[in-house]
Amino acid sequence: MATYMDVHTGMKGITKEQFEAAHKADMAIEKEEGVHFKQAWGDPESGHVYCLSEAPSAEAVQRIHKRSGHPADEIYPVPLTV
Fold first, then answer.
1. pTM score > 0.70 for this model?
2. Which residues of 1-82 form beta strands (DSSP E)?
3. How far apart, in whole angstroms, are the C-alpha atoms of residue 73 and residue 82?
4. Pfam families of this UniProt entry (predicted)?
């Protein structure tokens, strides 16, 4: 399974409750695409949200985000970790 970091923009002013609801929406259907969202970070001031996941492909990550109503603007593979 590969690791991916995806970026969402345009979420300026997102509240903790909205952020948690969006993350839970992803997690509720992640298994349908073989994705596992490990962690998410958000910055309401800049509107950026970052999600770290394990998945069979970047396309699988995007399908989950689209179905949850918040497609990623960018998805990057993370081939190296320490």
1. yes
2. 2-8, 36-43, 48-55, 74-77
3. 26
4. SCO4226-like
2-77 maps to CATH 3.30.70.3090? yes
What tokens does 73 get? 């603007």
Say how many C-beta atoms besides its own lie within 10 A of residue 20's C-beta.
Answer: 12
Domain boundaries in the chain? 2-77
Give the mean pLDDT of 36-40: 97
Question: Phi and psi (nearest 5°) for 42?
Answer: -140, 150
How many CB atoms are closer than 10 A to CB 43? 13
